Amino acid sequence: xxxxxxxxxxxxxxxxxxxxxxxxxxxxxxxxxxxxxxxxxxxxxxxxxxxxxxxxxxxxxxxxxxxxxxxxxxxxxxxxxxxxxxxxxxxxxxxxxxxxxxxxxxxxxxxxxxxxxxxxxxxxxxxxxxxxxxxxxxxxxxxxxxxxxxxxxxxxxxxxxxxxxxxx
Length: 168
Fold this sequence. Notes:
Blueprint lengths: L1 H23 L2 H23 L4 H23 L2 H19 L5 E4 L2 E4 H49 L7
Antiparallel strand pairs: 1-2
Helix pairs in contact: 1-4, 1-5, 2-3
């Protein structure tokens, strides 16, 4: 019963912190920034290969680093709430719920109650993170496919309406 209650507390904490993270950081903007960083990094690598001047390289590197810094700050913003929440749960709530500091026995292994809490938070958080990331990427891919299809349709319409491109 103790293991289940600790696991439930850990899962609730993980879900709450994940919700806060999703609400405080604009995930779409983060993905867009990551794509910009990726393309700017490719440009930087191409500039290095073709032997661009140091001034050009430094300017491009500064651009990449600025984007990376903005992306990192956007992702770290929720920690202002999540970290104090973790400290409250770990140092106040858990000891109040389990004043006798019980041990949790799981598959022959013996864990302190707070260690078991951290293990559950880590494993559940990792699984939740992977699942949501895969889902977000599928959604982004579908929306990009839809955008590409509509862009192609628009380009065909433009070409048909343009008298220069029409066959004579």
